[in-house]
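Sample pair:
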Amino acid sequence: MEGIIKPKALQKGDTIAIIAPSEPINKSQLEKTRRFLENTGYKVKAGENVLAAIGDYVAGTPAQRSADFNWAFADPEVKAVFMAVGGFGAGQILDKIDFSVIRANPKIFVGYSDATTLQLAMLAETCLLTFHGPNAISLPDFRPAGYTMSNFWRQLSAPEGEIQPKTTVVQPQSVWQEIRPGKGEGILFGGNLSCISKLLGTRWDPLPALDKHFGPDAKYLLFWEEDYEQFSEIMRSLWQIRNTGFFAKLSGMIVGKLTAVAEVDYRVFPTKKELIREITEPFGIPVLYGVDFGHEVPRATFPIGVRAMMDAKEKKLEILEAAVV
């Protein structure tokens, strides 16, 4: 059993790399983000190809995007790697990532949506803890003292000479709902549901690696969110994960925001909550619904690979260990 590798805490004056492994960004978005991070007290480096674009489809070729990804982890000045934006395309660079460089240089990596593809591949290959949190170009748009940013910096950073608090309570900012009551404790694992399901069966499938990293008896809290997807496709993804046998390893499920989720193929079908209750019924696990993470604001930052505790009836979620060292 290897155990999770935690990156070093981010401190003021450190250098953050901005890369675009998925969809493209423009120069004004990059410069706005750079100014924000510099005004917050950090130095910024951008990938050489960060402004590359093939239409509005992807941020350059797979070779360009993977080169920036590998550079960010190899550069000794860079202490954290921020994904510029999600969307589509991260899966195109997996076979060009040098995971040995990541293993030798563990750093903070943060993003969400398509970032899940990279985060779970890194978990499988290196057991590096990464962060499901806001993408870089959205950071200037959040209130500095608001929930999203305070939670974000609390997970990634620690003042010089201090240790990050061991526990973090994720406070509800909207109405969380109980689908099935109960308490659960386990390793926080998940991200964007479509990205999780599309890694299954690939060389970077994270599920077989979990036993090696955490032991065969480990239990997990599966957290997931989705955006602009039909609910029948969401259920297809959940059934695919369940059919691997992974649900038997769950001690709980945490459902985030389901943004712009509709159904056009079917007119008469059960509600979202009923279908989630049905698919988890044989396992009797607690399920919490509508938690503040995903494609909506406010947005919590979740470290992937740490122990956490949930209580669906009491609407409680607590991260039980520090995410950085």
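The two ends are 20 Å apart (CA to CA).
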